[in-house]
Amino acid sequence: MLRNAFEPWHLILILAVLVLLFGSKKLPDMARGLGRSMRILKSEARALKDDERPETPRTAEAPRQEAATPRQESAARH
């Protein structure tokens, strides 16, 4: 059905419509902005993939809580 969806004359027609709508001066700016957006999207996607990867396994140690000494308890009461 969509075997030959975009033939060369389709692309020429799309380009002509874009030039008529936006003008030849705006098209390079639009292309530059699209390129920047794509680079940002790629870098964010790469960062998400890096965040999902498991880090090197670490030995989990429970944080040590020191028991309150009798002196600290009596000082806290007064």
Q: What attributes characterize this protein structure?
A:
mainly alpha, 3 helices, membrane, elongated, 78 residues
Write a short abstract of this structure:
With 78 residues, the protein is an all-alpha fold.
General form: elongated
In the predicted model, the low-confidence regions spanning at least 5 consecutive residues are none
What is the β-strand count?
Answer: 0
Q: Would you list the SSEs in sequence order as H and E?
A: HHH
Distance between the termini: 85 Å
**CA radius of gyration:** 31 Å
Work out the helicity level.
Answer: 55-70%
Number of DSSP helical runs: 3
Strand pairing plus helix content: what structural class?
A: mainly alpha
Which secondary structure elements does this structure contain, and how are they paired or packed?
Elements: H1 8-22, H2 26-52, H3 70-77
